Write a sequence for this structure.
């Protein structure tokens, strides 16, 4: 049809793989955030995971619940943003 390699890549290949890439990013972000929190809890000396571990050891339940709510809110916001991006960029399907 006369398209160059760059045109095929930009107009066909990238839109075809974009939904899968964004779905993978959504899953990976959740596991990455969880991994960072766990690493901070067990090996860190600062960060949200460290603070949550410190609050748990001090039996400060209200503060721990607040920290958990903050982490959950940020995680949900990231997932919702990636879903929005997937819907917006994947409209051609």
């Amino acid at each position: 049809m006369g398209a160059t390699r760059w045109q095929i890549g930009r107009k066909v290949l990238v839109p075809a793989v974009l939904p899968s890439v964004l779905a993978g990013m959504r899953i990976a972000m959740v596991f990455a955030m969880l991994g960072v929190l766990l690493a901070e809890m067990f090996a860190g000396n600062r960060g949200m995971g460290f603070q949550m571990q410190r609050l748990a050891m001090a039996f400060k339940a209200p503060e721990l619940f607040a920290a958990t709510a903050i982490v959950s809110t940020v995680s949900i916001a990231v997932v919702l943003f990636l879903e929005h991006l997937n819907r917006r960029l994947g409209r051609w399907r």
Observations:
- The helical segments are 5-43, 48-57, 61-89.
- The chain has one domain: 19-89.
